[in-house]
Design goal:
The protein contains 19 helices and no strands. The protein is mainly alpha-helical.
Length: 428
């Protein structure tokens, strides 16, 4: 990595932390703000949450083309300004129409930030250090969300609308501060992978759909996000409350355990991940999550005490966090390595689109199941987790050796360098 790439990467990581901090400030309190503080009712609050997903689904197909044509930095700056306007106007809105319009702007801006920042990480990293870069991104995102949510929770007062206005104003300020930080980034030329096919100047979706490995990765990604992230605050929490008798405070502890596991385990597992095939790492995540669902089954369907049920439920979230820490240095770098030169923005946007679709469908399916059909809910998502393992193994057959295990590229460079110097290659 050059000095220019390193300087840009540091600013990108600051950007990830600031954007996550801003989101953590408001996202946990949107429902309370719309339904109770503004007095617009549960229906409008539900529509606001749906608008976030719909806005993302609308803008992401166009975001990839824009990133390919204009570069990730200009697209990111536009997204940040849009999100800042949406956040500030949301804090000042007092009618259903203005709340929904503001939420659309905020949701669209947030959605475009993800592939833009991911593409900047790709452009400022090499295949050798890309896993560490994305692991750091995931770590900072979770840390920012956790710290933002903690501080935001102490600032808000449901009896005072002004406290929420302050909250959204701070979020808007975070986005604008990020505009200033990112405007100073000097992006290096995107590194080209030797032998990569040339990119279409049109950023063709047809070309992407012709990449069998990428299509299989998108299918796998949908199942991953549907069976895990799409259940956190919907089906799984409803299941915990209704089947396991989990209190709201214990549910908060479970979410904290998930974040703590990610923060503690992220870099501990990185060396393990870097030395293994990516398809096998993802397959192991499916097995870990299958165990997590089995533990959740014990929490809600077992005959243990309430204390044991609560402990099991918290352990479920911790196990999900362990799986997430294995995925963060695996999935996003794999998307980047599958993309032809110059097409990283298109591929990142496509994968973000799959993620948003799964996050929209997941709660809609899991919420009613988790609240009422407790046994079938656990069994269904346990099977989905095992399906992740099967899909990951199948994906591995579509990947080249270096795509599946980038450490092999480093080993070959060392061997070639030794041979060129007249030295005998070392044997492992």
């Amino acid at each position: 990595m050059t000095r220019e790439m390193g300087a840009a990467m540091r600013r990108i990581h600051v950007g990830n932390a600031l954007s996550a901090f801003g989101l953590g400030f408001t996202v946990p309190y949107l429902y309370v703000y719309v339904a109770q503080v503004r007095g617009l009712g549960a229906m409008t609050a539900g529509l606001v949450l749906a608008v976030f997903a719909v806005a993302a689904l609308i803008v992401l197909p166009f975001a990839g083309r824009a990133i390919v044509r204009r570069g990730p930095l200009p697209v990111l700056l536009v997204a940040l300004v849009t999100a800042a306007i949406g956040a500030l106007s949301l804090g000042l809105s007092n009618s259903a129409s203005t709340v929904l319009v503001s939420a659309s702007a905020l949701g669209a801006g947030q959605a475009v930030m993800q592939p833009a920042l991911a593409t900047m990480i790709v452009d400022c990293s090499t295949m050798e250090n890309r896993s560490r870069a994305f692991a750091m991104q995931f770590f900072l995102q979770n840390l920012g969300l956790g710290v933002g949510g903690l501080i935001g929770g102490h600032l808000v007062d449901p009896t005072k609308a002004g406290s929420f206005v302050l909250l959204f104003a701070i979020e808007a300020a975070m986005f604008l501060l990020l505009v200033v930080v990112m405007a100073t980034v000097r992006m290096p030329r995107a590194p080209r992978v030797e032998g990569a096919p040339a990119a279409s100047t049109k950023g063709s979706w047809k070309q992407l759909l012709g990449n069998r490995a990428m299509v299989q990765l998108c299918v796998l990604g949908f199942v991953l996000f549907f069976a895990c992230y799409g259940q956190f605050e919907s089906g799984l929490s409803a299941y915990g409350v209704e089947a396991a008798g989990i209190s709201t405070s214990a549910l908060g502890t479970a979410l904290a355990a998930n974040t703590l596991m990610i923060v503690v385990a992220q870099f501990a597992v990185l060396r393990f991940v870097e030395r293994r095939k990516r398809s096998r790492v993802i397959a192991s995540v499916g097995l870990i999550w299958a165990v997590a669902w089995a533990v959740a089954g014990y929490a809600g369907l077992g005959d243990g005490s309430q204390t044991m049920a609560t402990a099991a439920f918290i352990s479920t979230y911790a196990l999900f966090g362990l799986g997430e820490s294995l995925l963060s240095p695996t999935l996003a770098p794999l998307v980047a390595d599958l993309a032809p030169a110059g097409m990283a923005g298109q591929y990142n946007s496509a994968f973000a689109l799959v993620k948003q679709l799964a996050l929209a469908v997941g709660p809609a399916v899991g919420g009613p199941l988790g609240a009422s059909l407790h046994g079938p809910y656990v069994v269904i998502f346990l099977l989905f987790s095992l399906g992740i393992t099967v899909l990951a193994v199948r994906l591995g057959r579509q990947l080249t050796e270096v795509q599946n295990q980038p450490s092999l590229a480093r080993s070959r460079v060392v061997v070639q360098g030794n041979a060129a110097a007249g030295q005998a290659p070392a044997h492992a």
